[in-house]
Design a protein that fits this description.
The chain has about 120 residues and is mainly β. The protein has no helices and ten strands. The strands form two sheets. A six-stranded mixed β-sheet has the order 2-10-9-4-5-6, with no helix packed on it. A hairpin with a 4-residue loop joins β7 and β8. The N and C termini lie far apart (about 35 Å).
Length: about 120
């Protein structure tokens, strides 16, 4: 079952969005859940990971202090609260999972488009 990302949209610089990902299909062997993004013409960029079994989180320098990752294991849902959005945050955002905080499977979902523009 592919993960389903949602919550993207068009927002002005400085605005906020909350992304969601329902992920019943993630491998149980993967202990970390991750958000990545792909900006136009660029490769995948790792953003943030969270340990499934606890609250430990990791962030890329580019989003630390602005983005917050969280999860609800009972609902099989991963979240990304994004504040103070910048034009360079424009990308398609994907959720995925992996065996470590900086190792993840290729995203299988459709992603959700985030566009930051005035």
């Amino acid at each position: 079952v592919q993960p389903v990302e949602s919550g993207g949209g068009l927002v002005q610089p400085g605005g906020s969005l909350r992304l969601s990902c329902t992920h019943s299909g993630f491998a149980n062997s993967n202990a970390y859940m991750t958000w990545v993004r792909r900006a136009p013409g660029k490769g995948l960029q790792w953003l943030s990971s969270i340990y499934r079994g606890g609250g430990t989180v990791w962030y890329a320098d580019s989003v630390r202090g602005r983005f917050t990752i969280s999860r609800n294991n009972a609902k099989n849902t991963l979240y990304l609260q994004m504040n103070n959005l910048k034009p360079e945050d424009t990308a398609v955002y994907y959720c995925t999972s992996g065996p470590d905080w900086n190792t993840y499977d290729d995203p299988r979902g459709q992603g959700t488009q985030v566009t930051v523009s005035s």
